[in-house]
Amino acid sequence: DLLEEIVKVFLVFGPYIAGHYLLWNGQPLAAALLMGFGLYYGGWVSHDYLHHAVIRGGKNKDETTAAVVPWNDAMGYVIGFMQGYEVDWWRARHNTHHVVTNEHGNDPDIKTAPLLTYVRNSPAIARGLNWFQRWQQYYYLPVMCILDLYWRLESIAYILMRLPRYWKQALVMAAHIAWTAYAFQGQWKYFLIMTLYRGFMTGTIVFSTHYGEDILDGNHKLTLVEQTALTSRNIAGGYIANLLTGFLSLQTEHHLFPMMPTANLAKARPHVKAFFKKHNLEYRESNIIECIRYNIRALSYQHLLD
After folding, report:
1. By the 8 A CB rule, do 101 and 107 touch?
2. What's the 3-state SS for 84-142?
């Protein structure tokens, strides 16, 4: 859907550019919120391009061909530069997540300990929590705020560990840091507001779709469909929820068809639901509030010690 993709790109660059204008013209708080939203949405849009799911080739323009891969990658790199993220770092992390979703010790996305240790009704894990971790169900949501900063630092570390081979990536990252320092000079508290705001929005969505679900052993014998049914949860809310999350609210469909254009995920949804029902698989879907509650319940421990 060309119009939909244009709207999504506008939701990245429009707020980001307008934010810079406001930042330099006496409206730094509005600027931080606009830029934070643009970078938040940029995460979903760059995700689609780096999955090579937007620009298509072939006779019917419905294939990922060698000719269109560089164009998809180019957009991913541009938005990655805006965000301060290294694309190779993201790919190494995200592609691994797709292959070993919620597998203990394998999926990098669920390695949240010691800050967040998912108890999931395990008395043994509950007994092992230290005094600080026993507050985790309360500080879970505030922790989402620091994720953007954490991912930025992890990106830098990824580059530094690969020098001198990654000298080009180091220059690009240095250019991003220099631009950010120039844009926010004298107004760093608004950079912090932007980062915390963006991190909270992104983290809340990301954690809602996997972290409260089943954790699997690495040697399981499940099929992709069975694994997805146990480890993914959609965020309900119709078209608005889909649009505001870059259609990553349709997480089950995305994990089954990771290179499907996001505009088609909603079309696949009824077919996936019917397939799950036919094969007695649970199709997990909840609104954003319930998704957050699932995470809080998975972090809670007190009822296991009574």
Report:
1. yes
2. CCCHHHHHHHHHHHHHCCCECCCCHHHCCCCCCCCCCCCHHHHHHCCCCHHHHHHHHHH
Query: How far, in whole angstroms, is CA 122 from its chain's centroid?
Result: 27
* Per-residue pLDDT tens digits for 2-51: 889 999 999 999 999 999 999 999 999 999 999 999 999 999 999 999 99
Structure tokens that stand for 227 in this block: 């694994």
What sign has the CA pseudo-torsion 17, 148, 86, 97? negative
For 269-294, the pLDDT digits (tens) are 999 999 999 999 999 999 999 999 99
Q: Please count the other Cβ atoms lying within 10 Å of the Cβ belonging to residue 102.
A: 20
How far is it, in rounded angstroms, from Cα 197 to Cα 203? 10
Q: Are 253 and 269 in contact (CB under 8 A)?
A: yes
User: Quick one: which of 82, 1, 97 has its CA closest to 42?
Assistant: 82
pTM of the model: 0.94
Neighbours of 26 (CB within 10 A): 8
CB 38 within 8 A of CB 15: yes
Residues 257, 1: Cα–Cα separation, whole Å: 17
> Residues near 48 by Cβ (< 8 Å), separated by ≥ 6?
8, 54, 246, 261, 262
In DSSP terms, 234 is beta-bridged to 285
